[in-house]
Amino acid sequence: MSDLLPGGADRKRLSVSLPLLLRPRRRDARPPPCRRCGGPSWWNGWRETFPVVATAAASVVERWQLALPLGKCSSCHRAFTCYPPGFYPRRQYQLDVVADVVAAVTLGSEPVGHVAATVTASATSARRWTAWVAALTRAGELVAAAAQVDASVATVALPPPRDARHPRAAAVLAGFEALGAALARVGVAAMERTGLGRVLGWQHRRHGDVYGLAGGHRSFSSAMAPGGRPTTP
Ligand SMILES: [Zn+2]
Description:
Strand content: 5-15%
Structural class: alpha+beta
Order of helices and strands: EEEEEHHHHHH
Bound molecules: zinc ion
Distance between the termini: 36 Å
C-alpha cells in the first residue's frame, strides 16, 4: 500500500524523484493530557515519517522528513502520537495532495497516470483515492452539514459536470469544499487548503477521528460538524 505512511524499513518504497526536506523537531515542553483518561503524560521519543505534502500551489508537492513526538500517559499507559496542525495520520500522501489528484482525475481529461505523476504517485493510488473519496459519504449530507454550520449562506449542491469521469467522487469532493468553506466562514482555523483536507483534518483535531484507506471502510458522519445533528436515527 504505497499510499500509507511508511516508517523505518518501508522508507525505501518512497519515490526518489523528490528531494527530502528535513523538518526541524518541534514539541511543547510537556505533552497534552491523556485523551482517554485525562491523566498527565510524558514525552516518549520520536517517530520518523516521510509524508508527501501539498504546497500553496496545486499539484506542486514536497517530501518531508518529519519526526513526530510520542507521548505516554502516566496513569493508563496509553501511548499516542502528537501531530502538528495540518498533518493527517497514516498517510504518506497528505489530504490536500489527495484532493488535488482526485479533482484532476474526476474533472480533468488528462490520463490518470499523468495526473498521479505530478505528485510522484502511481495511477493505482490515484484510482484508489478516487474510489475512497466517492465511498466516504454522500454529497448531499456534506451540503446539508454546510448549511447547518453556516446558515447565513445558502449552499446549493451543484450537479457535477455531465462528462465528469467519476461523477460521484466529483460530487463528494464538491460537498467537502462547501463544508470546508462553511467551517472557515465560522472561524474554524485550518492549515489545509482543500475542503477534503479542512473537514477531515478538523474532525481529527477535534474528535480524533481518522478515515484511513486501509482497515475497512468507515463512513464520514456529518453529525460531528459543529451544530450538526444526525440526519438518520
Ligand atoms: Zn491515560
